[in-house]
Amino acid sequence: MAEPVKLTIAKCQALCSDFSYSQQKKSCIRLRSDKEMCDLPSHFLCELVRWKKNQARKAELGERACSASRLNTIERCPRAYALHYLHHIEPDEGASWKRVGDAWGVARARIDMGLDVDLEALRADLLPYERSRVRAAIRLYRLCCGSPSSPLKYHPGDVTCEDEVLFNHGGLWWLGFADALSKNREHIYEWKFAVTEYDVLSIARQAAVYLSGFPEAKHFTLCVMRKPGQRPGKTETEQAYENRIFGAMCEKPEDWIRCFTISRDQLDVSGVLHQMVAAFLSQEKAAAESGYAPHYSSCRDCDYRPICSEFIGKSTDFLVQAKKVAT
Fold first, then answer.
1. Nearest of 94, 3, 96, 7 to residue 47 by alpha carbon
2. Cross-strand pairs, 187
3. Sequence-distant (≥ 6) Cβ neighbours of residue 97 within 8 angstroms
4. Main-chain dihedrals φ then ψ at residue 29, nearest 5 degrees
């Protein structure tokens, strides 16, 4: 087993802007007694606990722990893959869709676990119109949870969140964190906050990883909360904008929350995983041989778009060295 990762106070403050040291607890003052959760309404799991687990896992497995997201990233753009997974270079500025998605994910998890949600404290960097959209989506989620006519089939408190799967298949370690898992461990739910539809291949890949990681599970459901696209009026207040979005959502909730379920007997789990292993090894080899050359055709929604624009025409290695010198 890997040795525990030690954190200095300065490192903690760099990793989590909300860190505040407690002499009595010998840890962050906001860390709850269960050693996993954070008391802040803008958090779900403690960010430092999550970081320490990731570091310990890397010490054991190196950089080889794969996932459906990792495979999708290397297929979409080898440069984005190298920057994120190999060199751990953070984007210069968080993309709007990621800020909103993170806020939504934390709020949903807190609701699922029966915790309070402070809508104003989800993320300090949300723009006013982004806050309105997230709050409207959270209100719809609360409304739909447990409703007989809702596409959701569970109530808050029926599931646990962030359950980890880690297993070896085809010589690769596969890692995932289930957004919600029924307490009898028979049903896995993965949530997305998105504008676009998810293709069948992406759903099947995620289902294969989670159904393999939870052998007792019988069903995998991908739940997609459609991101609101309405624009605020010039004189419309933040609250009025939120109410307008929420009103549109309530007219037809099934258009805003869509669920796609794959049962274990409908999917060749092992076969899909074999294909994922072959695809990852092939893509990784090709990406390395190309020097992790970018696929500029996939830049529109990429976090690293500003960095690529700054170093357009330069190699990925040049970009990495430049960013490391700058930091």
1. 7
2. 219
3. 194, 195, 227, 301
4. -65, -20
Residue-wise pLDDT tens digits, 107-166: 999 888 888 787 677 777 788 888 899 999 999 998 888 777 777 888 888 899 989 899
Neighbours of 112 (CB within 10 A): 24
SS3 call for 294: coil
* C-alpha–C-alpha distance, residues 52 and 15, integer Å: 11
CA 243 to CA 246: how far, in whole Å?
Answer: 5
User: Rounded to an integer, what distance in angstroms lies between the CA atom of residue 163 and that of residue 172?
Assistant: 20
92 vs 316 pLDDT, higher one: 316
Rg of the chain taking only CA atoms, in angstroms: 21
Where are the domains positioned within the chain?
A: 1-62, 98-274
Q: What's the mean per-residue pLDDT of the chain? A: 86
Query: How open is the CA angle 270-272-276, to the nearest 5 degrees?
Result: 115
Neighbours of 114 (CB within 10 A): 9
Beta strands per DSSP E along the chain = 21-22, 27-28, 159-160, 163-169, 172-178, 180-182, 187-194, 219-226, 257-263
**Predicted TM-score (pTM) of this structure:** 0.85
CA distance 182 to 158: 6
SS3 60: helix
> How many angstroms separate the CA atoms of 44 and 30, rounded?
11
